[in-house]
Structures are given as C-alpha cells and as structure tokens.
Fold each of these.
Amino acid sequence: MKKLGWIIVVVIVGAVVFRIVQHFKTGESVKSVTEVATEVLIEEVKMGDIAQTLSYTGNIEGQEQVTVYPIEETGRLIKYLVKEGGIVKKGQVIALVDRSIKGMEFRPAKITSPLSGTVGMLFLDRGAMVAPQIPIAMIADINKVKIKIQIVERDISKVHKGQSAVITVDAYPDKKFQGKLLQISSFVNPMTKTAEGEIIVPNQGHILKPGMFARVELIVDKHKGVLVVPNKAVLKQEGKEIVFVDAGNIAKLKEVETGFEDENRTEIISGLELGEPVIVLGNYGLRDSGRIKIKE
C-alpha cells in the first residue's frame, strides 16, 4: 500500500514538473515570435581606391613673400604709390621717403619692390618715421601659395617629395584644393623632433590668402581596386573588428580585417565579399542572429 502511495506521489510530481517545463517552453516560443525587429539601414560592399593620409595644419603664405625695409633710407614717409591688394612689378616704386635734413634738401628717396606680386600690407601712415629697421610693406607672389607643415619623426620615412596633398580652409568649407609636397628639411629640429615640409598649392583666382589657417591631408600611400565599406559599418567588440550583414532579415556577425581608413570609408582585407549587404545604421547594440527590418 505504501509503495502504491509513493508511486502516486511520483506521478503527481512528474505531472507538475512537466506542466511547468511546458509553460516555460511556450513562454520562450511566444517571446521569440514577438521579438521586436531592429530597424537598420544597409549598404553593399563596394570596390574602390582608398588612400592612407597624414594630417597637418599650417598657415598659408605666398610662394615668395618678403617684407620690404628701407635699407639705407631714413626720414619720413611722403606717400605710398600702391594700395593693398594691388599688383606690382619687380623694381616698381612703391613709396617715397622725405630724407631732408634741416638746412639741406634731397630728392625724395624711392622704395622699390624686390619682386613681382601682390601688395599684402602697408605698415605706415603718411608722415611716419622711416628707418632701416622699420618695415614699409609686405609683398607676396600668390599665384601659388605654400603651407609649411611639421612632420613628426616617426612619419618621416613615409613622406617623400612630390606626394599629393588635399587642403581645406574655413573660408571655403566645401572646396578642396590640390597641392604637392615640394620639399622636406634635411634636418630634424632637436627641440620639437619634427622636420619641416613645404606644400605648394596653385591659387587660381587668388582666393587663398596669406595668413589663412589651412588643414592638410598628405597622401602617403594608396590602395587601388580594394573592398571598402562605410566607416560606420565597422564596430569594435572585445578587441576585434566586426561587421553585421543582412542574412534574410537576420543580423549575421562577421569578424573582419581592415586596412586603410579615410574620412568616410574603411578598406576590408578579409571577412567580406563584394556586394554583401552590410548594416551601416542601427548596428550598435545588435546581436548575432537578431531580427532586423530593412529601412526603405
């Protein structure tokens, strides 16, 4: 009789456990069915060219730029014969100086331009004292302009004369100017551990002005015909680089190896194939095999 009682107890407990297990299974099934799909935006893996760049900043100067001093003349400025922004020829008279001494008279001294270019600044007012140590004017050739950059020691081996550069300035934020690295100093500054480089930029229309602040992207290497994806497609997870791709409205995680990166795109060395749909928006917080909904 006792044995029969124990059998009944075991059967009842088993039935209860079975019902509990079934309840949880049903709950998980309902949960999986009702899982909210994450809305995402996708782009296909493309093939293109991508460059490795080094970033610098500097001030724009005329390709040739000189400050004019009255080398031997002392006296007072009679007048300028040019205006700021005006064009001058080499040897052209730009100012007259009264060098008279009390009791003696001299013809006005002529101050000439040492080069052809544009008058950048006139420093004195009429009647101001003129002396060899006082600047008269600044003249610059701005048909081309230059930007001096400071190349850190660890990058010197990557930098060579003739490399292309892309220049931007705040005055024209949507415009990019093309330049080239004309020369690199043969010496490294022992204080800053940098070598000076000089970028030359054609200046059609003279829209780049001496004194402007410039940003320089120096192209030191380029890969052609490689797989690229938008930068925002690549995520970092536990020290690895990953990308999510669309696998029939399911997010599939793929580990990738990357190469060069520019302001918009990242080179993919391995892990993806041309044309694969990668998730570029909505990928943060996604999980492998999570449900997704593609934005139209």
Amino acid sequence: MIRNAGGIVTNDVIRSLTLSRWLLGTEHVLVLQHTRCGLHRLDETGLKAQIEASGATVPFGFGSFDVIAESLRDSIRRIAENPLLAHGTVRGAIYDVDTGWLEEVDE
C-alpha cells in the first residue's frame, strides 16, 4: 500500500511501484481516491501564499483537482502508460466515505 495526499500518482509513487513491480513481482495495482478529500477543490494559490507568508518557499504543486473521477483517470493513465510498469493491470475506484461504497472508474 502506498498512501499520499490526494491518492495521486506522483513521481515518487511511480518510483515505489517500479520497485514493487521489479523486486516483489507486483502485477496488479488499485488506485483508490475518496470523497471529502482535502485536495478536492483546494485553493492551491491561497495555500501557497499562506505558507510563503511565513518565509518558507513551496517548490511543488499540491495536486489539487476539481473532479475526483478525472483525477483518478489521470493517475490510472500515468501508471498504465509507464514503460516500467507496462505489465499487469491497473484499476481505479472512488471510496465514498459517507456510504462505504466503492465506485469503479474506467480509464
């Protein structure tokens, strides 16, 4: 299990999945995002300004998104199209924190 803010596929997630694939033989990946995610519709500009007002520099984007299903499709695609992870299956689902239901999302 690899967890991060937003459940988005970052370069570090690709690195971890590559290690899992080639060292542990992982063949199947499930990308799971959830409703009520803090990155859903996050005001990145406002958050970055707040942090930078403290004197710190933010050298990265936070990965906010407007539509959970689209964010999930982007993450699935990023894994499926990576040549280091070309073998196996990639699926995605949205977990509804209110109902406990999983909704599978196709690429």
Amino acid sequence: MGMRYLHSSMIRCHGFLNSHNCVIDARWVLKITDYGMPALYQTQGLPFPTKSPKELLWTAPELLRDESLRKQGTQPGDVYSFAIMMQEVLVRGEPYCMLTLTPEVLQKCLRHHQPMTRNRKAL
C-alpha cells in the first residue's frame, strides 16, 4: 500500500527504497520512511550523497548504469528494490547473501552488464 500511495502521489517514487527505511509500528503496520529525499536534494541544491557499495545492493541495474536516473529514482527502480526486500524476507538474510561476491564486485557486475541479445546473423 505504501508504494502504491507514493507512486500515485506528487512524489512519484521513493528512489532510495530498502529494508533500512521500512519500519514497523506498534500495530505491526509497515511504514516507509525517507521518501522524497531525491527531490529535497535537488530543490535545496544539496550534494547528492555518495552511497557505499553495500547501500546500492537494493538499486536496480539500470539505475546503477545511469547516474541521473539514480539521483531522481524511478517507479520500476522502486519495484526492483521491493523485490530485493522480499528476497531478504524469504532467505532471512541480506541482499544476495547466497552469493559469495562482495558488494563492490556485485555493483561492478550490475553496472557493466550488457543485455543479452540474439545474434541477427544466426537467424
């Protein structure tokens, strides 16, 4: 419900969605925090914070490849972040915990991955 509300509001997307800014209140209702931060940085002329490789594990690959998109966030990027959070719940661990790669290596792989395309000559 929270993501649906954000996506239909003036904010349009969270941009920094991860399990660290989702909290549960006294009635066991999930609340999303830190929304609207990209717009705040932009309107106030504040420098965009540098994220550590570990903080970028919830970021969609297309946002890792495009700095301007990452700064403003996207709705599909929020959906990707939500999927990573669901993976955390299912495996009861941090993002990509089933892999032995460091956050730095994962970030490099996601950032420079070329999409798979079919070779036209083979057709």
Amino acid sequence: MKKANLLLSALISLALMAPSSLVFAQKEVDLGVESSGLLPSNPFYFLKEFGRGVRKFFVGNLVRKAELELGILNEKAAELKKLQEITPDNISALSRAVANYQSAVEQYKIRLESLAGQSMNPNLDRLLTQIVERSLKHQQLFNALRIQFSSEPKFLENLDNAENALVEMLSVIVQRLDTPEKFHGRFESAIGEQKDVFKELKAAELADRLEEKLSGAAGSGVAALKEDLLVTFSGRLEGLQLSNVIDTEALEEVLGDRLRVLKLLDEVRELVVNPELKSELNILRQRLLEKVEETNGIGAPEAAQSISAARELLAEVEGKIAESQIAVSSAIRQLVERAKFNLSQAEVFYDEENYGSAFGQATAASAAAKNAWLQLASTAVTRAHDLDSLKQKYDQLIVVANDAGLVAENSPELFKLLNEAEKKIVSVARLIESKARPEAIANAIRNVKMLLATIEQYIATANAVRGNP
C-alpha cells in the first residue's frame, strides 16, 4: 500500500507543480496567438469582426479559406483565454466570448462539410492535422475554465455547449474527410509533444465526447483511439510508481469535467492489473464522486443516461458473442457478468432515487462491457498494424534510453522492463501467427502497450531528474 500511496502522491505532485518544478509541470495552454487585440467586451469589437469578413471574402480557394477561418477560430479561443486572465469576475463578458467561439465552430463545421470533394488537394492533409491540434488545445482551455468557474453552473453549461459544437465539427473530419486510422494518428501525434503527465487522460475526454457522437466504423475507430490513450495513461501510472515523488494535494483539483473523468477512471481501472494501484484508483474515484455530488450533484437525468448507455453497450457485447464463430474466453464472460451485476445495482439505486450511486454503478458496468467489446472488436488488420507499432515504439525507446545515458549498469530496473517488453512483443507475434483467439491477442497487445508507456514514463522521469531536456 505504501507504494500505491506514493504513486497517488506522485500523480498529485506532477499535476500541481509550478512551471519551474523539476518533473512534468503542467503548461499553460499556448494557442500560438501573440496578441488577442480587441476583445468581445470592447464596444468596437464589431470592427474586428468586419475585418475578418473582408479577409475571408478575398480568399477563393476552399482549403485556403478553411485555413484562414481556423486561424480566426483560434483567435476567438485566445480572446476567451485573455478575458479569463484580465477579467475573471466578468462572467457576462466571458459568456459572450464563449458564445462567439461556439458560433465560429458551428460555421466552421459547415465549411468542413464543403471540403468533402477536396481529397486530392495536398493542403487538406495539413489542414486536418492543424484542426486536431487546435481542437485539443481548445479543450484544454475549456477544462481550465471549468476548474476556475466550477461554482458557475450557467457558465459551465455554456462551456459544454461550445465543446459539443467542437465535437460536432470534429465528427465531420472522422466521417467525411479522413479515415479512422489517419485520424487516430493525427490525434496521437498532436498530444505527443505535450509535457503534461495527464495529457492522455485529458485527450481521452475529448475522444469520449466524440465517440458518443459517432457510430459504425467511425465510432469504432474513435473507441480504439480512446482505448490507446487510456492504456498509455495506465502505463504511465505504473512508470510514475517507480519515481516515488511525494506531495499532499488532491488530484481531483486539476480535473475539469469530473463526471466524464469518473467514467474514464472506471475504464482505467479495468486496464490496471497492479492491485495496489487499482485500490488507490478506487479511493480516488470515490473522492471524485463525492466531490461531484457536493458541487454539481448527480440527478436523475445523468443517472438515467448512464444506465441507458450501459444497457446499449452490454447488448452490443452480447450480440458480438452470439455472432462469434469460436468460443469466447472465460475472462470475457466474467466481464459480461460483472457488467450485468453493476447494471442491476445501478437500476436498484435509481429506483431508490440514489442517483449518485446509480451513476457510479452504471459507469462501472459500461467500463466492464467496453473492456469486453474492445477485445472482441479487434481484427487481423489492426492486430498486424499494432504489432508493427509496438516494434517501432520499442526501438525508439532503446534509442531514447541510450541518448539519455541510461544503461544496464546505472538503470537496471529500466533494462529489466525493456527485456520484458521484448519478450512480450515476441509472444504477441506468436499469438498472431498461431491464429489465437482475437481477445487473447488484443489483451496481449494491450499489455505490451501499457508496458511501453511505463518504460517511456520511467525514462522521462529519469531525464528530468538528471536535468536533461
């Protein structure tokens, strides 16, 4: 338990450190806008909007116009951020800035829909990458605002509406302009350079919103993306456990959309195998649940929606099992039974009007069902692609370790992990070659991904301690 307590403290410390701190301090959201200029609270702001309209009028190429409008959208996010900094008490001005942003996103969605016939334009690929990068930064800004204005329910509702508009815009990319695989790559690349230890968990919030909007291949692709983010985050927790950084603050103070994070933490708990870590996550989850009930509260609508989502997902999993041409593993069946139990508990709590407990049990049911679903949904193509990615990641980590001066003599624990990863990658290759059950292969791949994330975090922490960039 001591190690697990140190892990939770490490998480908390890394989340709350000042920018000058040693390891993985959270960075302020950098939108890349040098000056935000006139703000929505200024009576002459309409002149700025007029100038933007003139600039758009003189651009004829559809993709170039979309690039310009993306820049304007980013400027409106920067205006919101500036107002947050200089007039944090002016909720009315902040709300106008949020509304401006939301309107711009809604218009940008229409612009993207007009690009459906531009697939041969060489600039489109670059534009889509920029959109994903900007969207993740805007979501980080929204989370910072949620934390700062957690006691302003109307403002939080406005933020939710704006972020939903952002997700609707991203759904156009996934469904009409990109393949699930390319979008997956853009998303992961966009967060790859971030120095926030919680970057995968925060990005998973946006992916989770997007998954709710999509179905079919697009929805499955985003579900796989979210799983990869949470697997990496789970592995990062294991890596942090090795660093033993201690602090006393509460992790939940740095999280924005707590209801959504509760749902994601349930999925992380499904991934984690370390019993002490799982126990600490249980404690953290309970604290978050209590905090939500104290502040925003969990009512009948939230509980009912969570129960409905769990029912639908469980039915889909049972359908996949029924369609399967080979017997599924006992582990999958245990997940299904656990999901059913949690769902039945949620329904009992709902009938008793204990909506907080109903919500918690329903999200636990969804997490167990999603765990089973992801293992059953893997295909031969994705498994082969995953194996190649694991090999590349392993080779990259070897290079990074060598560049950092980490060798077996001064980092025996690291090289023990690297040797374990190498063996597990070979084992995955053998499972694929022998055509083992899909869920067995998927689970083995997931375990290697987690281990590689653990190794990556271990190296990053060692670099920070040594003062390396």
